[in-house]
Amino acid sequence: MSEARIDQASGLRRMTRPVRVVAVTGGKGGVGKTNISVNLAVALASQGQRVMLLDADLGLANIDVLLGLQPTHNLAHVIKGERSLGEIIVPGPAGIKIVPASSGVQAMARLSPAEHAGLINAFSEVSTTLDVLLIDTAAGISDSVISFTRAAQEVLVVVCDEPASITDAYALIKVLSRDHHLQRFHLLANMSRSIQEGRELYDKLAKVTNQFLDVTLEFLGVVPYDDYLRKAVKKQSAVVDSYPRSKSAMAFMHLAQKAVRWPVRREPGGHLEFFVERLVQYSLCFADGSSRVHAGTNHSKGDLL
């Protein structure tokens, strides 16, 4: 195989390489999902990742509020056919790209499965080169939460030290695993007083999931209770930006380092997924490149050079 063909194949694989898609969810409202999503996005971007953040709380959007943004258009305009997805994307801190949702639009909270599928498919038309798509889901176990979470590759479940949080997180995992065949989840303890407290939360949930569900639950770590995080919220900024040496900011950086090491799915999973066309193109391109290299092994060393 000539060097030109090798370069061409590797170049195509880079152009079509898969996007790591992570849904941040939790079941219960008030556990800090949006703060986790925003700060993880900024932390990933600071490590060289090209990040897009989707506000998937379609009827009660708050990523724009958390970051002090005032987008002119949002996902409601995409649903109405007034704007394309690419036209509503706004820049955020550290170069992240944000897909804003609407707030106070009841119809957006009641989209049909077909409309959810249309939004998910619309991401395949985004020409921006990305490494990571983070999805900040709504609270609860609505059709919206199920659709977006199921279309992701990784599910990050946020819990805090409240009985209702643990109960709702288990209910969410149960529905996603039993009804939608998701089997791998990452657990993040938020607002923890210590690593030990976070570990105990994980142990409580893992004990029940191990007994009743066929899932893998990974303990991702903790985001500590931190006054600097509250100060950043009041400033409408990410704590990773405003107070980079704070305990919570360093926890987000550590979390981002772990997330970057997660393997990226390289083939379609057989159901509705974000950027599924890129997965198809990548798998075909990779197979084509691999077969060409394999065929070339029958040639002499001089031919390969």
TrEMBL record:
Coiled-coil ranges per UniProt: none
UniProt superkingdom: Bacteria
GO biological process: negative regulation of cell division
This protein's record includes keyword rRNA processing: no
One term of GO molecular function: ATP hydrolysis activity
InterPro entries from the UniProt entry: FlhG, MinD_FleN, P-loop_NTPase, ParA/MinD_ATPase, YlxH/NBP35
Keywords from the named record: ATP-binding, Nucleotide-binding
A cellular component term, taken from the record's GO annotations: cytosol
PANTHER family from the UniProt entry: CELLULOSE BIOSYNTHESIS PROTEIN BCSQ-RELATED (PTHR43384:SF4), SEPTUM SITE-DETERMINING PROTEIN MIND HOMOLOG, CHLOROPLASTIC-RELATED (PTHR43384)
Protein known as: MinD/ParA family protein
Species per Swiss-Prot/TrEMBL record: Nitrosococcus wardiae
